[in-house]
Write a structure and sequence with these properties.
- The protein is mainly β.
- It has one domain: Acetoacetate decarboxylase-like.
- About 10% of the residues lie in helices and about 50% in strands.
- A seven-stranded mixed barrel has the order 1-4-5-6-11-12-16.
- Strand 11 and strand 12 form a beta hairpin.
- The longest helix is centred in the middle third of the chain and has 11 residues.
- The chain is globular.
- The chain starts with a strand and ends with a strand.
Length: about 230
């Protein structure tokens, strides 16, 4: 597939690695930076989502996504992303991702309000009551690449995702895009509701890492089963 990711906000909290490892499937291992695992909340826009060689379709190819993620590696040491949840306001995209990518997508009512470079981002998961998540942040005009070996590099420079099908088989999928151009995030309002819904109730303080990123054009490759 081909798609474009924009309006990216990365909020991250450190967490005890054992709490993450206990939730991972067999064959995946928690990644750490300076001895800490990291849990991220990432709201953004999905634009021009379409299969290879086909044009984007109005409404169907443009939607919002809010994911909760952590960082892992497989038995071969390949680093990647593990998603605990992905909220999305495009019902067809949710069903496709669940069926063909084995990802824990959830139906949500979502909207954005843009005022210049400021974004108000709202998300409400449809399966639950009273769980509105709100984010207010600004896009950045000046960005740079993450320094290899830095925390920022550890958090954003990931090009594999892992998932598990209903039978418990482990898969990986490769994504390809230019390295993220990032900047410290000016985020004046955020929500830990997506974390609370997953049982991570202790992560209530300010996220130590706030980043925004410029738009990237992305190639999505088919999943492959990990033997």
């Amino acid at each position: 597939m081909r798609q474009c990711w924009s309006g990216l906000l990365f909020l991250h909290w450190p967490i005890d690695p054992s709490l993450i490892q206990a939730r991972l499937p067999a064959g995946l291992f928690v990644d750490t930076y300076d001895g800490q695992a990291w849990l991220g909340v990432v709201p953004f826009f999905m634009d021009r989502v379409r299969p290879v060689m086909l044009p984007p379709v109005p409404r169907l190819s443009y939607f919002l996504e809010l994911n909760v993620r952590t960082y892992v590696h497989d038995a071969e040491g390949r680093p990647g992303v593990w998603f605990f949840s992905l909220d999305c306001n495009q019902p067809i995209a949710v069903e496709i991702a669940r069926r063909f990518f084995h990802l824990p997508y959830e139906h949500a009512a979502m909207k954005i309000i843009r005022r210049g470079n400021q974004i108000d981002y709202h998300s409400h998961r449809k399966s639950l009551a009273a769980n509105l998540s709100k984010f207010r942040y600004e896009t950045a005009s000046s960005t740079q690449l993450a320094v290899e070996g830095s925390l920022e590099w550890f958090l954003v420079e990931r090009y594999l995702l892992f998932s598990v099908n209903p039978a418990g088989a482990l898969y990986c999928g490769r994504v390809q895009h230019a390295p993220y151009e990032i900047a410290p995030g000016n985020c004046t309002h955020w929500s830990t509701e997506p974390l609370r819904l997953l049982g991570f109730n202790d992560l209530t303080g300010n996220p130590p890492s706030m980043l925004v990123a410029k738009t990237v054009e992305v190639k999505i490759f088919p999943l492959k089963r990990i033997q």
